[in-house]
């Protein structure tokens, strides 16, 4: 993972972690231990899913842009399937509060996305290569 990728990860993970702690505290106050557990699981799901996506897409970007897009779509599909299977498996569970889980997932997803976008916007990445030679430039020798 490159320094830019770590900077984006930090820009997203830190605010999400803070929001997750607040969500766990609010859920514990509102719903007791079951609420806190539901919110805690929600924070972990969001952090794991987004971190896995960032790592996979970063690795695939080193191969090719096409591979990067395929990795992004593939991880999205696998995460949705994993979430559906997990929610189905724990549909009747009473050990945690599903409402706290759902609200925490939504809030942390929004905060992670905003943090990731903000981190990306703060990067100083050139989108044009200043040393590239353009065919037909003045001073270029023709063979």
Average pLDDT, all residues: 89
Q: Helix and strand string, N-terminal first?
A: HHH
End-to-end separation: 41 Å
Number of strands: 0
Give me the Rg, rounded. 21 Å
Q: What best-fitting shape do the alpha-carbon axes yield?
A: elongated
Assembly state:
single chain
Major β-sheet profile? none
| Range of strand content | under 5%
Number of helices: 3
Report the uncertain regions: none
The share of residues in helices is over 70%
Name the structural class: mainly alpha
Could you give a short description of this structure?
The protein has 143 residues and is mainly α.
Account of the protein in words:
There is one protein chain. This protein has about 140 residues and is mostly helical. The protein has three helices and no strands. It has helices at about 5-60, 65-90, 100-120. Helix 1 (about 5-60) crosses helix 2. The longest helix is centred in the first third of the chain and has 59 residues, at about 5-60. It is elongated, with a radius of gyration of 21 Å. About 25% of the residues are buried. The mean pLDDT is about 90.
Descriptors:
mainly alpha, single chain, elongated, 143 residues
Please specify the SSE layout and strand pairing.
Blueprint: H1 3-61, H2 65-89, H3 98-122
Helix pairs in contact: 1-2, 1-3
């Amino acid at each position: 993972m490159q320094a830019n990728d770590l900077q984006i990860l930090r820009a997203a993970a830190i605010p999400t972690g803070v929001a997750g702690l607040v969500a766990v505290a609010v859920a514990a106050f509102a719903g007791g231990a079951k609420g806190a557990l539901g919110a805690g699981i929600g924070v972990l799901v969001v952090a794991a899913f987004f971190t896995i996506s960032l790592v996979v897409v970063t690795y695939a970007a080193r191969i090719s842009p096409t591979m990067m897009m395929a990795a992004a779509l593939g991880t999205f599909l696998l995460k949705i399937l994993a979430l559906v299977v997990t929610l189905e498996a724990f549909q009747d569970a009473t050990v945690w509060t599903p409402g706290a889980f759902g609200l925490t997932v939504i809030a942390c997803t929004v905060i992670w996305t905003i943090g990731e976008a903000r981190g990306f916007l703060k990067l100083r990445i050139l989108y044009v290569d200043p040393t590239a030679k353009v065919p037909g430039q003045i001073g270029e020798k023709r063979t």
